């Protein structure tokens, strides 16, 4: 199957005639009421298609019958995950940013490159890509806020036949900053004079 569909073959239609030898009858096929004719092996888009077969004798008498051919897509899209993009914290000490620095106690807004997908049965621009961290009970979008920690995001690509494929990637929110202030305690409850 491709975005154009698939080549479909069928067994030859047979016919009988009172005035002509069966082997002299002409059998033709069409999907547009014989504006055009088609042959076994023609390519059909995904879906169900009614084909009309016509047997015509030497006197141009004819009889039609109709049968359906079905093209289905049962293969999910191929998907490639993106990666986190707004890295500004070095958590492993290797000199490269590998996380997003938390901007508040809620964590930080995290962005990522969009996943990409291709499909044999549908044009790529018709595929739906969604993201989730809870098995698609809810969906999320790039730019959502995550708490401090590592979070696994699942990307899912679905085609028009409801076939789907997934991939996963991690996003990291870190806290590498020292506390912004500290106030030291003083001893309380002094009851001895140490000055003499």
Kindly describe this structure.
It is a single chain. The protein is 0% helix and 34% strand. The protein is mostly beta strands. The strands form five sheets. The chain has a four-stranded mixed beta sheet, with no helix packed on it. The protein has strands at residues 6-7, 26-30, 43-44, 47-56, 62-71, 78-80, 100-101, 108-109, 116-118, 128-132, 145-146, 149-158, 164-174.
Q: Describe the biggest sheet?
A: 4 strands, mixed
Radius of gyration: 34 Å
What is the approximate shape? Answer: rod-shaped
In terms of structural class, how would the helical and strand content be classed? mainly beta
Number of beta-strand segments: 13
Strand content: 25-35%
Distance between the termini: 97 Å
Spatial order of the strands forming the largest sheet: 7-13-12-10
Q: What is the residue-mean pLDDT, rounded to a whole number?
A: 91
Percentage of helical residues? under 10%
Low-confidence stretches: none
User: How large is the count of helical segments?
Assistant: 0
Order of helices and strands: EEEEEEEEEEEEE
């Amino acid at each position: 199957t491709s975005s154009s569909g698939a080549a479909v073959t069928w067994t030859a239609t047979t016919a009988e005639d009172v005035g002509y030898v069966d082997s002299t009858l002409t059998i033709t096929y069409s999907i547009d009421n014989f504006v055009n004719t088609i042959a076994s092996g023609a390519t059909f888009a995904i879906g169900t298609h009614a084909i009309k077969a016509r047997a015509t004798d030497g006197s141009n008498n004819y009889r039609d019958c109709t049968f359906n051919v079905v093209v289905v897509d049962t293969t999910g899209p191929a998907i490639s995950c993106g990666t986190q993009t707004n890295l500004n914290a070095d958590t492993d000490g290797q000199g490269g940013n590998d996380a997003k620095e938390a901007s508040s106690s809620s964590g930080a807004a995290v962005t990522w490159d969009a996943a990409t997908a291709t499909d044999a049965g549908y044009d790529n621009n018709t595929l739906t890509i969604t993201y989730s961290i809870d098995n698609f009970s809810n969906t999320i979008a790039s730019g959502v806020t995550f708490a401090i920690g590592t979070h696994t995001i699942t990307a899912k690509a679905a085609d028009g036949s409801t076939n789907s494929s997934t991939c996963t990637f991690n996003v990291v929110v870190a806290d590498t900053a020292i506390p912004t202030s500290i106030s030291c305690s003083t001893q309380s409850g002094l009851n001895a004079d140490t000055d003499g």
